[in-house]
Amino acid sequence: MDHDPLPGGRWRTTTAIKELMLARGLKPGDPMPTESELVETTGVSRSKLREAVRTLTALDILEVRHGTGTFVGQMSMRPLVEGMVFRGVLAPGDDATMLTQVVEVRTGLDLGLAPRIVERLAGRDDTELRACVQAMVDAAGRGESFTTEDRTFHLTLAERLGNDLYGEIVAAFWDIHMTVAPRLGLAGARDLTDTALAHERMLDAAIAGDIDAYRAAVVDHYTPILRMLGQPGPAPRDA
Amino acid sequence: MDHDPLPGGRWRTTTAIKELMLARGLKPGDPMPTESELVETTGVSRSKLREAVRTLTALDILEVRHGTGTFVGQMSMRPLVEGMVFRGVLAPGDDATMLTQVVEVRTGLDLGLAPRIVERLAGRDDTELRACVQAMVDAAGRGESFTTEDRTFHLTLAERLGNDLYGEIVAAFWDIHMTVAPRLGLAGARDLTDTALAHERMLDAAIAGDIDAYRAAVVDHYTPILRMLGQPGPAPRDA
């Protein structure tokens, strides 16, 4: 269960803390026992315990709130995002490669959602998604970017699936994308308009129950970013 | 860039280390400067430095090899897998929910790969994938499980896309799945055979260039596990 590469005390200590969390049936957000109680229960030194707490905090398995105490963490995608973003930052010459891979992953996640999204949205408009798309189209018309609406759009789609984990992954790769992308330059007015309209076509296709049109719009909506990345064209679409 | 929730010294120290890695153009696997040099360069205390190294090691941004030194890490999916597996472990009553979400994510990742896979494999058999499928069918015939071949099959498919990041995510969710799944009981002989044959249908459909058959086989190949999870049937397929 524990893939911690460091041998010895620290590995045993993180495992001991995890076992204690399990034995007590703790859930994300629950308060952890005090440091003194942990020292007593696990039988490890205070300094080893602090090291282990730090490791588990980095993994979002624990959360230290200063002045309050230590709590069970959310086990979120944050550690993934941090690692991936820094991997992108470390390879500035490969920014385009990294971002192309991220865009392919995002395309895959969106195509993977397609059957469910079309099934859920077919036949009735979705006021939340419609408002989101309209805000993007309006912003593009003013030559302004619309990253907040863009993120909301993708998260709302994932929410419609009713699978929190899928939503977290979509959000994580959106965050990685948006952190890495700006180093490649800003989107032009044409890119903004194309992107906004492609989101609108995704929504229209889903409401029309047309999965092929939905998939085509998913692929199209990454065309502006792939154009900026100097790719010859959109990722091969299903046609 | 740094989402570290802890204020003060530690945040500044991890950032200082990251900035040094950037300034020196270090890449995964490169040796890090010695602790003494890091103390001198960053101007932080040895204890704060060690804390920060520990945090970055948990995130696989650094890697400590005992007796050798500290190196730039691979920034892999390991921290994600560790957090997700422990999230699953912490919620034993919700095992089925967790695993259903993981299966949906894996289905989505596979469906997202579909257009590219069919494009790459159409028209010629793939000896590596064929051998893998044959080994699964043979094992199922003997009533044995075939997790190694199963993992190889999915990783090889992702490799055919030529996107390492996608492959890492596929592998990460395969690992999360296989770590969480055994607590729900073992697959029966029928499940083994159904799963092996569905992998074979995926390969046959890709080689035939039939994306709809490929997608159907992807969904089918999760049916045995969804049956074990007590789901009413396969995830809605595109039909």
Automatic annotation (TrEMBL), chains A, B:
Please give the InterPro entries that the UniProt record associates with this protein. Answer: GntR_C (IPR011711), TF_FadR/GntR_C (IPR008920), Tscrpt_reg_HTH_GntR (IPR000524), WH-like_DNA-bd_sf (IPR036388), WH_DNA-bd_sf (IPR036390)
Entry keywords, A to Z: DNA-binding, Transcription, Transcription regulation
- In this chain the HTH gntR-type domain maps to 7-75
Q: What would be one Pfam family of this protein?
A: FCD
Give a yes or no for keyword Protease in this entry: no
What PROSITE patterns does its record include? HTH_GNTR
What SMART domains does UniProt report for this protein, alphabetically?
FCD (SM00895), HTH_GNTR (SM00345)
State the protein's name: FCD domain-containing protein
Q: Which organism is it from?
A: Propioniciclava soli
